[in-house]
């Protein structure tokens, strides 16, 4: 508690001294994109190393407070694990690395350190987030007729900062006196905006329809053309997502049927070929069997002798004995 009071008194005295005797510098504004990192420059040559360094957002939010006498660093609420100094590498560098930029980081930062006079440096940080933009025709919102009917087109811009504005163009020229309805949604958790614009117009016009999102505060830096699909006259209107899905489903079905047909033809051809091969094999086996049956006759069996060749008659034996 005593330390807290001491800090209050010290910074009050420093503030009073700053009013009468101080040196200040204003650096060029920086621009940072949501989610990225940014380095806030603060050169502090010849500073008193035993004195404190303080980073502050506007006049009320403490980002970081480094005590030179105690060599301790306190991080402000919401900046834990997001800020770091470079005092260990360079004593003359008091720059602050701010990571994971959010919309809440937008504003003017002040870097305080002590030399002969009290020095503070102002840096204004402009946080931006680019919009993701798309456009399509709202399905089932067209009324037909001899004059071409009326169509409703929707342009959506997602997750951008600061708040932007949607513009419509026909053939590269801004549309004026159009029937449109605009809506804006703010995500309180992130501070990012989402925009929607519904345009009602005659479908019979044949020029290309476009939408774009423009940041009202920094148009020159955040002005971006839509990633829209081209929309033309009623004969070439942008198809609705449902129609695209149906067309994709039909295409897939046709491909599957073609593949199934090819596989069926291959199966039938293979089956017919097997039948022909089996029939030919049976025919050859029957032919070989018939030939073998012919050669199995005892008279023509290879290596066999007839009874007349192997039997000696008794008369012949007697004649031979008389000769002896």
UniProtKB/TrEMBL annotation:
Entry keywords, A to Z: Cell membrane, Disulfide bond, Glycoprotein, Immunoglobulin domain, Membrane, Receptor, Signal, Transmembrane, Transmembrane helix
Gene3D superfamilies recorded: Immunoglobulins
Listed transmembrane segments: 244-269
Protein name: Ig-like domain-containing protein
Signal peptide bounds: 1-25
PROSITE patterns associated with the record: IG_LIKE
Keyword Cell cycle set for record: no
Compartments reported by the entry: Cell membrane
Topology term for the membrane: Single-pass type I membrane protein
A Pfam entry, by short name: V-set
GO biological process, one term: cellular response to lipopolysaccharide
Residue span, Ig-like domain: 35-111, 117-223
GO cellular component, one term: external side of plasma membrane
Species the sequence originates in: Hucho hucho
